[in-house]
Amino acid sequence: MDANGESAGLDNLEVVENEWIPLADGGRLAARIWRPKDAHAHPVPAILEYIPYRKRDLTRTRDSINHPWLAARGYACVRVDLRGSGESDGVLADQYREQELNDGVQAINWLAQQQWCDGNVGMMGISWGGFNALQIAARRPSALKAIISACSTDDLYADNMHYMGGCLLTDNLSESTTMFSHTSCPPDPELVGERWREMWLERLNGSGPWLETWLRHQWRDDYWREGSVCEDYSAIQCPVMAVGGWADGYTNAIFRLLEHLKVPRQGLIGPWGHKYPHQGIPGPAIGFLQEALRWWDHWLKEKQTGIMEEPMLRAWMQDSIPPTTYYHHRPGRWVGESQWPSPRITEKVFRFGPGAELREPAGQPDNMETASEASIQSPLNVGLFAGKWASYSAAPDLPHDQREEDGGALVYESGPLAEDLEILGAPTVTLTLASNQPVAMVAVRLSDVAPDGKATRVTYGLLNLNHRKGDDRPELLIPGEFFETNVPLNHIAQVFPAGHRLRISISTSYWALAWPPPRPVNLTLRTQGASLKLPSRPPQDTDAQIVFEDPAGAAPIAVTLIEPPHHNWLVHRDLAEDLSTLEVIKDNGCFRIEEIDLEVTSRTWDWYTFRDDDFSSPQGENRTERSFRRGNWSVHTRTHTILRADAETFYIQAELDAWEGDKRIFSRNWDLALPRNFV
């Protein structure tokens, strides 16, 4: 029965709990398959989701909603764990490397050759699965006819959770710890038999903090180019649907894909965080599986579904709303553009002026006689309420009222707007700056300021000023020397109502979203030539024609809650010690999956601390715990990572421990030092 109450023909499905996909080197990938019972007699297209997050248990609930729903409509849906994860053989040593992509191509070829498959294959995934859908599409396996890529990127350096504008994101640390935990979990003995312990020990010995690898590549070198499809968009020859949300960190890539791909393509962007749109928060969630079905029916079954008659870009135009750290719903409306870049969008310019004002130019730019200068050296607490780079919407992880952050920033503000202003695209701020240090960064925020003074962050951008000439050619700044640079802000669709003000806030650090520079930086801003460029979009009547069905999906599996989940963000301030800590709790609790009689516990904690204005004091610390239990079989893993730095060096301390029952069967420590390179 569908989640929306409609019959979906799920009784006519065959579910294969585990199927082995053989690989050329003798290894095997583990797959779970949902397909029509008569698929052997009447073959159907296959839809592949290829990720490392454990089909057997950790994604089982999500999979039970998505894959049966599509399979009941005439598809074979196949969830495959990457090599080194779940029940698949081997060790997973990094993201998006040659082995992963080559295995994925082999999996597609295997699917196309099965008796129950008609030879046509699609790929669909969110985050990691969206990444490798693009990357495998660029390898052009002949059976791959189309993809849906959600919350992903075309550029592994520019828009990923490692670096932003050349600045080191703290999500780099949290992602490393997350994968540290995933790669050290064992397979399920019910599927692999007595090999489970041997496979687990192989993973434990081959696991480690990927943070080390990512910190060895602090600018855009060949490591990041490999797997970045932006290096050659023409390599992708199949249709692409790119999906994302404004609260997520990956949305910029959708606009680049729409602009540079030459294949049939669509973009879909809602107000959501890092979630599939039918589960999207902030809402409104939409009938995404219905849209996916229209896409697959068109490209895999040659049906006329009307999907390609939709605008190339469908996006949620967000209305103004007071600031808070969690929204259940973002008011707004759907808008559409038939091409991207859109000729309908024009540039609206505001110039920085004396008196900290943003003004629309009435004539020529300011000359040297009317220009002014201002300096800023931000305290380390600017960014404490910035939220998460990629919101998961499971906790209060969105930016709070910007007035507290603005106390440590240069602020330029417009007068009250005479009429509504709608933007769609990427705002750009042009600045003329001089730094007193050779290594520096700048954070720029665009806020919507209501008449009552509340300031909601609309979008922002970070720039490592040593990367001002390109992420692949960093160079030191000359202290005291002025230079002009552009700071692109994240793409957004937003309405600024009449009577509200625009605010640009400029700071020299943004902790704990990004790692601060090695030493305190004083930036001097010269207003001459400084400007804010906004992508102004006029409303159009055809926007009202964009509609979506309500969310649908198969009923989720039965899960018994043993310990409730707990998610929160907490700010602790020890005034006696002048120590501040941002604590992030992602505790998924303990639950039992009834259909496989498996008890699962998954918990993660993050702490980001700093003391006073000491730029050598910031520290990130992450800890994860996972356990799996069935009868007398019980395993438990714990990972722990600390990252800190002085002016010249990053220091990593990491621990991995594993228990079988009450006996600790593995323990390893890492103590690493890596030089800072223009960060």
TrEMBL record:
Domain of life: Bacteria
Keyword annotations: Hydrolase
Transmembrane segments: none
Molecular-function GO terms, alphabetical: dipeptidyl-peptidase activity
Keyword flag Metal-binding: no
Alphabetical list of SUPFAM superfamilies matching this protein: alpha/beta-Hydrolases (SSF53474), Galactose-binding domain-like (SSF49785)
Record domain Xaa-Pro dipeptidyl-peptidase C-terminal: where: 293-556
Keyword hit for Hydrolase: yes
Family matches, as Pfam families: Peptidase_S15, PepX_C
PANTHER family assigned to the protein according to its UniProt record, in alphabetical order: COCE_NOND FAMILY, PUTATIVE (AFU_ORTHOLOGUE AFUA_7G00600)-RELATED, PEPTIDASE S9 PROLYL OLIGOPEPTIDASE
Name the UniProt record assigns to this protein: CocE/NonD family hydrolase
